[in-house]
Amino acid sequence: MRTRDRIIDAAEQAIREFGIAGATTKRIAQQAGCSEALLYKHFAGKEALFLAVLLERLPALGPALARLRLGTGQGDLAANLTEFALTALEFYRKAAGIASGVLADPSLLSGFRTMLAERQAGPHLPIQALAEILRAEQRGGRLDEAADADAAAAMLMGACFHRANLSSFVDLLDEDEPWAAAIARTLVRK
Amino acid sequence: MRTRDRIIDAAEQAIREFGIAGATTKRIAQQAGCSEALLYKHFAGKEALFLAVLLERLPALGPALARLRLGTGQGDLAANLTEFALTALEFYRKAAGIASGVLADPSLLSGFRTMLAERQAGPHLPIQALAEILRAEQRGGRLDEAADADAAAAMLMGACFHRANLSSFVDLLDEDEPWAAAIARTLVRK
Questions:
Q1: 3-state secondary structure of A104
Q2: Which domains does chain B have, with CATH numbers?
Q3: Which of A99, A162, A168 sits opposite B161 (nearest CB)?
């Protein structure tokens, strides 16, 4: 396994075990069997390393968006959106630990903000990508023109993000699948 | 000012200045001008104290929900929901620091979960309260029966919660007010 991959794996494990605050570069380097100097050769800082965990180790939103885009005009739109919502939910559940750890650490958050701005990346981009797909479905007549595609995308992603966070605080009694189906049905209703 | 209020104020300030991790009971007691023992006479622990900050110091969701409930069947539903969404957004922006700090600290989170379960409280309750209001609007014929009220409530609250979090990571370019109006319009469209 390449050093870079070993470092990302070690970071993911350290975050899971010790939280963001406890996932020090010293601990991560040790676990990856490399020096801290080598870790810093691969990653400019904790921010870049944690972003790599988010983008390369979690069940990704990218492929799910690509699948949804490929399915434009095909199958049942509510069913396609339900499947997408379930993937988004899983992603946000796994990402919650990293996101909250970054939010809770003012200096890490500041570095993260700068890095996202430089790379023109950010957690708002999946909403924009979903809105584009919904606009294409509107052009194909499968989604009500009266719906605002950006608002619909913000609501679907937001509901999933919120639910992923809620389940950290309370035991939710309803199942994910019917929940996601009701969201999708309510969004695409005509 | 009563001791309890002084302690809550001091906790709110400490969280703002030092984050959850740095808002120690020692620091909070010192700032409130009381002993740690007295702090613990008023609050069983950090969990109870932070919950008090959330419930008693932030712009509350409760009054906004009450206003929305009182307005059932009155005025323009989309306008009422837009106003509510803007309050929810403000609440979640202020609550994000506490919520993420709790999420990022496994021991604090565990205590928080237990306390919420004991008090039958939790961040999912505003969604349920909003769903009840939406059901009443459905009975009055102002909201499409084809919409699932629970799903609609989860989407409105989720979109606000998500946006509040997004703005910690990136500079959002669109304004809150038209954003909230598009959300409300898309939800109540017939």
A1: coil
A2: 1-57 (1.10.10.60), 59-190 (1.10.357)
A3: A162
